[in-house]
Amino acid sequence: MVNKAVEEMVVMHHGEAMWEQIRAKAGVDVEVFMSNEGYPDEITYNLVGAASELLKTPAAEILHGFGEHWILHTAQKGYGGLMQANGRSLPEFLRNLPDFHSRVAMIFPKLQPPRFACTEITDHSLNLHYYSHREGLAEFVVGLMIGLGKMFKTPTTVRQTAAKAEGADHDIFEVTWIPAPRS
Ligand code: HEM
């Protein structure tokens, strides 16, 4: 499902021919990704690496863009019901995020999802803790948060305050938004 979404994003912005180049450079011989099939993580990392080289864009920027695309296209269009059920505002959605992938796992039994926790919750901010066995996806999480802000039409900023890549136990992001006026 993830690889299919990468393909869709590349084709949308850069066309079929660029996708074929990226797939070839990444050494990926799968021609059609099946969304309910599990693939080795290596395939996704290789696709991001090849896209970064061919599009002359840092991998972090690609992951950030992919996070937004995931929310605004993949999740919202393909899984609107699941997304709506998780919350009607950004803060509600984030507070329910820790349980989100357990519902996704009912559709994708092979899922190896990340774990999230929320602390320091105020009416305009919280700390999002991200635990994953995968490396290097912090910028993807930032893109996901920005995508959620856009989905809820809520101006959102994200600042990473702890990084596993720099020796911390896990990644922490301070997510800040402008609260909706009380009605
Ligand atoms: C209906 C919407 C969603 C679906 C169907 C979905 C599904 C998935 C799938 C299939 C993976 C790959 C894991 C694997 O293949 O084992 C994944 C990973 C991930 N998802 Fe979701 N997801 C959704 C929404 C979200 C949202 C809203 C967030 C956070 C805001 C999120 C955060 C992540 C992250 C950070 C990963 C990276 C994997 C890792 O760190 O181990 N996802 N998700």
Describe this protein with a few key phrases:
14% strand, globular, 7 helices, alpha+beta, 183 residues, 4-stranded antiparallel beta sheet, 52% helix, binds protoporphyrin IX containing FE, H-NOX domain
Descriptive overview:
Helix 4 packs across helix 7 (138-151). The chain is built from 7 helices and 4 strands; from the N terminus they run H-H-H-H-H-H-E-E-H-E-E. With 183 residues, it is α+β, with helices and mostly antiparallel strands. The protein is globular, with a radius of gyration of 17 Å. It folds into 2 domains: 2-57; 85-177, Alpha-Beta Complex (H-NOX domain), CATH 3.90.1520.10. The N and C termini lie far apart (39 Å). It binds protoporphyrin IX containing FE. Residues 1-2, 75, 79, 82-83, 97, 100-101, 104, 108, 111-114, 132, 134, 137, 140-141, 144, 148 line the site of protoporphyrin IX containing FE.
Task: Please outline what is shown here.
By secondary structure, the chain is an alpha+beta fold. It has helices at residues 2-14, 16-25, 41-54, 59-78, 80-85, 90-107, 138-151, and strands spanning 115-119, 125-131, 156-162, 171-177. It folds into two domains: 2-57; 85-177, H-NOX domain (Alpha-Beta Complex), CATH 3.90.1520.
